[in-house]
Write a structure and sequence with these properties.
Largest sheet: 7 strands, mixed
Helix content: 55-70%
Strand order of the largest sheet: 1-4-5-3-6-8-9
Shape: elongated
Order of helices and strands: HHHEHEEHHEEHEEHEE
Strand content: 5-15%
Number of helices: 8
Number of strands: 9
Distance between the termini: 83 Å
Length: 269
């Protein structure tokens, strides 16, 4: 239509708006990496302002038809901002990408591939610090799991373990930790709990496992689970609590299975 200046004004403003949207996205996601995300958001915001300024300068000068490349203060600033901004955004984005890769590898190393829960390393790698009083550790182990593998096959055994993990996840709070620490043994770490509260959670899981049925080509799998609980009443570590919970679990196994025992507190359920 011949209004090349008008088209350039709208193009600059549109580019500025797109860059502003990118800045907003990085700022909204800054919790992932506050420094990198905030720096990228700032660079995008500055770049956005420089393009809007180019459109403003053309409109202010009435250059609605261009016969040559625009030349004004905004174009000079924009040239510097684009060169520096693209370089900075590229560097920060590459750094962020590498950080994400490292975090993903760390997450994979701390996650049980079969169930998606934490693994033993996630619980015990690091200094053995003392846990607050009121921390409860629940150790749970499927009864006669080897029989399930032998009769129904390992694939069906894996499905049973995944179903077990789903029941655990559905019955714990968002700030509780659940981990698979052995073949069929799972562990739950609950902060700000009590013997009564942790026993109630363990009993609820036990009852749901008892009622659970995993369909297979050879028929449904029905199983039970035994549990042991230890609660921190003094200076203890996760390791020492798990040892006591395992002892209570062993007592539950020797008492007939399909039950929960409390360490030092007797029968809980």
């Amino acid at each position: 239509m011949g209004y090349s200046g008008t088209g350039t004004i709208f193009a600059n403003i549109a580019i500025g708006m797109l860059l502003l949207l990118a800045a907003i996205q990085y700022w909204a996601a800054r919790a992932e990496s506050p420094l990198l995300m905030a720096a990228n958001a700032t660079l995008y915001l500055i770049a956005s302002a420089s393009f809007v300024a180019c459109g403003y300068a053309l409109a202010e000068q009435g250059q609605f038809v261009l016969t040559a490349r625009p030349s004004n203060w905004a174009e000079d600033v924009n040239s510097i901002v684009v060169i520096a901004g693209l370089t900075g955004i590229g560097t920060l984005s590459l750094t962020l990408n590498q950080a994400r890769i490292a975090n993903r590898h760390k997450s994979e190393a701390m996650t049980d591939a079969l169930t998606g829960l934490l693994n033993r390393r996630a619980l015990f790698d690091g200094p053995p610090g003392h846990v607050p009083v009121g921390t409860a550790v629940v150790a749970m182990d499927l009864d006669y799991f080897k029989t399930i593998n032998d009769r129904f096959g390992h694939d069906s055994g894996d499905r049973t373990l995944r179903a077990f993990a789903e029941i655990i996840t559905a019955n714990i709070r968002s700030d509780d930790l659940a981990a698979r620490i052995g073949g069929e043994e799972f562990c739950i770490v609950m902060l700000n709990s009590s013997p009564r509260a942790s026993a109630a959670v363990a009993e609820r899981i036990r009852a749901q496992i008892e009622a659970m049925s995993v369909p297979t080509a050879l028929g449904p799998i029905r199983t039970t689970v035994s549990g042991g609980i230890a609660c921190a009443t003094g200076s203890e570590t996760i390791q020492s609590l798990l040892i006591r919970a395992d002892e209570a679990l062993y007592e539950a196994k020797t008492s007939g299975r399909n039950r929960v025992k409390l360490s030092d507190f007797g029968l809980a359920a």
